[in-house]
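Renewal narrative, Specific Aim 1. Our central claim is that a sequence can be written position by position from structural information alone. The example that follows is taken directly from our test logs and has not been curated for this report. It begins with the structure tokens describing the chain, in the order in which they were read.
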């Protein structure tokens, strides 16, 4: 427990930034009309390719005996891939709704 408290004391600026970004994100998302929410979320999900690249980099730089980094990297790749695919599926379905029916 003292290690966590020491980390927080050393990186208090990062903690403030994370807390402020959480409040800002909630405020921004709360003001988006419900009509625009699905297109924005499908686009944001597609941007999760950055998470996949970061996870691959973490897994590549991790030591072979560092199982925690390898497991977390693997889970990040899997979950990021699911999010990207889901974003593309939702976007495709949304675009199908705007096509003219024959």
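The sequence written for that structure reads:
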């Amino acid at each position: 427990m003292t290690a966590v408290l020491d980390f927080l004391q050393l990186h208090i600026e990062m903690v403030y930034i994370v807390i402020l970004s959480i409040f800002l994100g909630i405020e921004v998302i709360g003001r988006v009309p419900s009509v625009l929410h699905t297109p924005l979320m499908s686009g944001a999900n597609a941007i999760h390719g950055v998470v996949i690249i970061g996870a691959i980099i973490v897994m590549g730089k991790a030591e072979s005996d560092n199982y925690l980094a390898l497991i977390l990297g693997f889970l990040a790749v899997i979950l990021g891939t699911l999010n990207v695919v889901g974003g593309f599926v939702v976007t495709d379905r949304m675009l199908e709704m705007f096509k003219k029916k024959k």
